[in-house]
Each structure stands twice: as structure tokens, then as C-alpha cells.
Specification:
It is a single chain. Helix 2 packs across helix 4, helix 14 runs antiparallel to helix 15 and helix 18 packs antiparallel against helix 19. It contains 23 helices and 6 strands. The N terminus is likely disordered. The chain is α+β, with helices and mostly antiparallel strands. Among the domains are: 231 residues, no CATH class; 59 residues, no CATH class.
């Protein structure tokens, strides 16, 4: 399988306008990554007046180590930063630093502020080859993939005063959260150690922050009066973090690199090789490894989600449905991405009952995250398969509205309105869409 295509396994493409030019930034979504990070943030926010729901976190697929805040409460984290963190405490320390910027109300200058990120987004979640196998590769999507973009170094301006304040506040946040704050300094030591590497991955982080040496001095000063911060490692968190790192490494590094770095029989090493084998086109080997992992940890939802994805890519739809259903059950909570995936797998069937089940899961996915445009696309397909064309047109109108195709959205909303059942939620929403779009299109025309 082409590696570039395979890397769409958990990608969203966001359009960001930077320096007056259009660039594609790969902002990935992955439930394991999101659940782990959200868990860390909840720990760090225990004594804060900021709610978890107030913060937007975006994960950028990039081989540069970086993390930064923009637009008030938007945190961006590069995948390589997670991979390079020594353990979960270093990762937590970086997050604490970014949360300190948010709590301090620090304002950052950018070459061009990220504007209306959700409105400019193409939030099509592509898992494995879902989009490719089902024909969901919209014509506009090809235009987005103009190349691998990186966040500009001029994206964010950091003053020494703000950075010093953020590091000292991060120490306080970590200690209050029972996480050893010295790991912020340890992470910076790692940056310093790699400073003169020819192939360093840390250039981006150093270019957007003051020198690690300066920051280590600020942290030492903050720790001087904190004798209550020498907390032990949480083994469960560390094990989860190692699995997450391994997964990200397998997705973002070559097969040769992965098997060289992850060569043991530990769970994390096997996980990395399973991911990399899948991307390398060896489905059989990947499944064998994942079956071993599931045997050792039978309630891990992420192993089952991944093996289900591989079965779906191999067009073994019943197996995909089985594992994704179990994955959702083992996750123990509703999740828009997992429900979207299960809805998509069920949609591969010609059985009417399974298509109806698909509609249920896709609608629930959308209720949890109305901005998931790919779920809207799948829902339109599901309605079309049961010959409910009016609702298929309605779902298509919603999808086009989300991705900014206002004219097409208006066109499909009008089609839906002509046949949709009166006084249903979809009827009211279609009417609202038509009124909103009528005004917007009229304004643009004038």
C-alpha cells in the first residue's frame, strides 16, 4: 500500500491561511491520543477555574518537536513532541506549560492569526482507507493535498516575561497535580542535548521558545521553594503513554526505522510493529501481532479498533464490525469517531437491518460532534441505500455547509425541503439552513 495514502489512517486536513498563502496542515484525530491527553489535562486542571470543554486541542502530524497556544485556548501539539518525550511526565510538563499560558491570558502575535478554524476546516476524518474505499474523496480534497506543510516559526511570538511566568506557573500546576515538576526541566535537557545534532528534530521548538538553558534556570528557581513535588511515577499512565508513543512512531516513521527502534517483545514494541506492518501492506503480520496483544490485554479498546480497521481495509467486513463493536463496548463511553467507524463498517452490508443500525450510529456520532463532516457524508450514503433521498439530500446539505461549499449546501437543502417530512427535526433544520444560506449567498452576491 502506498505509504502516503496509508497515513490517512487517522488524518483530518485543516486549511490554514499563513503568510497569505494556502498550506495544508495535517491535524490528526485518534481516540487513543485524545483520551490519554484529555486524561492528563483533567489532572492538571483539577485546581483551575478553566473547564476541559473550554480548551481545543489539535494534534499536528509533524516530525518537528513543538507545542504552542493560539487564539486564547487553542493548544497545538506536534506528534514528534510526544514521541520524543522521555515519559508521560515530560509530556504532562509541556501541556502544563501551555495551560499556564492560557491561565495567564498571554497574548501571542502571529504572522496571521488562525481565523475561524472550524469554518475553514475540511473536517473529513479518514480512518485507514475508509474514504478511499467508499469513494468519499471529494474533488476539493485533492486540491488540499498540495504538500506537507509545517507551522511557520513566525507563527507565535513568545516574550521572555511570558515564558518565564508560564514555566513557573507550570511548576505550580504540576506539583498541585502530584506530578514531579522537575520533568519539565528534564524535557528541556533533552532539547539541549540534541541542539547540535545535524538531524535534530528540535529546531522548531527552540525557534519558538527561549533557550532551554534560560528556561531551566527559571524552573530551578520555581522548584527551590517546592519540597512537596517529588512524586512517584504512575505506572499505569506510563504504560499507556508508551503504547501511545509506539503507535505514533509506527504511523509517522518508516518501517525500517520502526523495526529498528521497537525490536523487543514488549507490548509497546509489538504495537509499533503492528502499525508499521499495516502501513507496509503486511496485513497478515499486523493482525497476528494484534491478536497476541489482545490475548494479553483483552479489554484494550485500541487494539480491537485497529484490528477492525485492518479487516475493513482488507474488505473483511463482518470481522471489522465484530471488532469495532467490541472496541466501542470496551471503551466504556460514547465516542464520535468510534461510532462513525462502526457506522461505516455496517454500511458495507446490503442487509437492511445493518444499514438501519449504521444510521443509528452515524446519527449518534453527529450528535456527539456535529462538525464531523465525514459522518454526514456516510449518513447521506446510508439514507440513499434505503431509498430515503430527501434525508440523503439533507445530510449532504449539512456536509457541504460544514466544509464551506455554501452554494452546494443551498442546492441540496432545497432538494431536501421539497420531499422531507413536515415538522421533523430534519425539516426544521433544513428550513434554518435555507434561511441562513439565502442571506449569506445574497450578501456575497452583492
Amino acid at each position: 500500500m502506498n505509504r502516503v495514502i496509508a497515513l490517512f489512517f487517522f488524518n483530518i486536513i485543516f486549511l490554514l491561511t499563513i503568510n497569505n498563502s494556502l498550506k495544508a496542515i495535517e491535524v490528526i484525530r485518534d481516540t487513543e491520543l485524545e483520551e490519554f491527553t484529555n486524561g492528563i489535562i483533567k489532572i492538571l486542571l483539577r485546581d483551575s477555574n478553566i473547564e476541559m470543554e473550554d480548551i481545543n486541542i489539535y494534534y499536528i502530524k509533524s516530525n518537528q518537536v513543538n507545542a504552542f497556544v493560539t487564539g486564547g485556548k487553542n493548544i497545538f501539539i506536534n506528534t514528534e513532541l510526544i514521541i520524543q518525550a522521555g515519559d508521560y511526565r515530560e509530556y504532562a510538563a509541556v501541556i502544563a506549560h501551555e495551560l499556564a499560558h492560557i491561565q495567564g491570558g498571554h497574548i501571542f502575535r502571529t504572522s496571521e492569526e488562525i481565523s475561524n478554524i472550524s469554518g475553514k476546516a475540511m473536517p473529513i476524518y479518514l480512518l485507514g482507507i475508509i474514504g478511499l474505499m467508499t469513494g468519499a474523496t471529494d474533488a476539493g480534497f485533492a486540491g488540499i493535498m498540495v504538500g506537507q506543510a509545517a507551522v511557520s516559526d513566525s507563527y507565535t511570538y513568545y516574550s521572555r516575561t511570558q515564558e518565564a511566568a508560564a514555566d513557573q506557573k507550570a511548576v505550580s500546576i504540576l506539583c498541585s497535580s502530584m506530578i514531579d515538576a522537575s520533568y519539565l526541566s528534564k524535557f528541556l535537557e533533552r532539547l539541549n542535548f540534541n541542539e547540535f545534532n545535524i538531524d535534530t528534530k528540535f529546531d522548531n521548538y527552540r525557534s519558538t521558545h527561549p533557550t532551554p538553558q534560560d528556561r531551566q534556570n527559571w524552573i530551578r528557581l520555581a522548584l527551590k521553594n517546592r519540597e512537596d513535588c517529588d512524586f512517584k511515577k504512575d505506572i499505569k499512565l506510563e504504560n499507556k503513554f508508551n503504547l501511545l508513543k509506539a503507535k505514533l512512531f509506527g504511523f509517522t516513521h518508516s518501517y525500517e526505522e520502526t523495526i529498528a527502534v521497537y525490536e523487543s517483545d514488549s507490548a509497546s514494541d509489538l504495537y509499533a510493529r503492528a502499525v508499521s506492518s499495516y502501513l507496509n501492506g503486511d496485513y497478515k503480520k499486523s493482525i497476528e501481532i494484534l491478536e497476541t496483544l489482545i490475548h494479553e490485554d483483552e479489554y484494550n479498546p485500541y487494539f480491537k479498533e485497529f484490528i477492525g480497521e485492518i479487516y475493513f481495509a482488507d474488505q473483511m467486513f463482518e470481522e471489522a464490525i465484530y471488532y469495532q463493536t467490541n472496541s466501542l463496548n470496551d471503551l466504556g463511553k460514547e465516542n464520535d469517531l468510534y461510532m462513525m467507524m462502526l457506522g461505516n463498517y455496517l454500511l458495507s452490508s446490503e442487509n437492511i437491518k445493518k444499514i438501519e443500525d449504521s444510521i443509528y450510529y452515524l446519527k449518534r456520532s453527529i450528535q456527539l460532534n456535529p462538525k464531523n463532516a465525514y459522518s454526514w457524508y456516510l449518513l447521506a450514503r446510508a439514507y440513499a441505500k434505503i431509498d430515503d433521498i430527501s434525508l440523503a439530500n439533507y445530510a449532504t446539505a449539512e456536509r457541504y455547509f460544514l466544509i464551506g461549499e455554501k452554494s452546494l449546501s443551498y442546492e441540496f437543502a432545497l432538494k431536501a425541503m421539497s420531499d422531507i417530512k413536515d415538522n421533523t427535526p430534519e425539516w426544521y433544520r433544513t428550513y434554518d439552513l435555507i434561511e441562513i444560506l439565502k442571506k449569506e449567498l445574497s450578501t456575497n452576491t452583492n
